[in-house]
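Technical note accompanying the year-one report. For the benefit of new consortium partners, we illustrate the data format agreed upon in the data management plan: each record pairs a sequence with a structure-token string. No post-processing was applied to the example shown here.
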Amino acid sequence: MIYCTKYFDEVDSTNNLAKQLAFEGCNEGTVVIAKTQTAGKGRLGRTWDSKNEHGIWMSVVLRPTGSLKSIQVITTAAAVAVSSAIKEITGIDAGIKWPNDLLVGGKKICGILTEAVSTASEFQFVILGIGINVNQDLQDFPADLRYTATSLKILSNRKVIDKNALASQVLLELSSVYNRIEQDDTADIVKLWENKLVAG
């Protein structure tokens, strides 16, 4: 997959903007990345705290052509891709909490939100939103999240983690698993996902 990345200082939600671009006909592989989101979206209508510049807040436009069964694996595949990218860049082994969170030591470091737009007969596009807590210190989290969320910086005891390197690695890993989805070759992806499942 060829990516076209669009950077913004501030958006309400990268998923919202990516969806708008998709409706306008943007190419598959369009990536929206923002320094901060004022209304980040979580699962089931929840909000995602992303008002600071310390995380990776991005959404990818996908236009899958594989079978419905394979398309339903996109969230699973994205979790595997992000976990692999985190391991590659930081050495941290993140587990996957069904259906869309990545945890380390029981604390959340990443959320994934997939939004599909379809007609009665076919998918038009899928927006894959990824939020990763990267360089936050404890005080950067709202008080009610300090016992349930953490960041890669806190976990690794590093001064700063290169967000650009991590985002690039995520997109590289995502491209790999997405190509397999398009070929309806998802058995290994599901197996990797199952091996990384953790209780939350």
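Partners are asked to follow this layout when depositing records. The longest strand covers residues 107-118.
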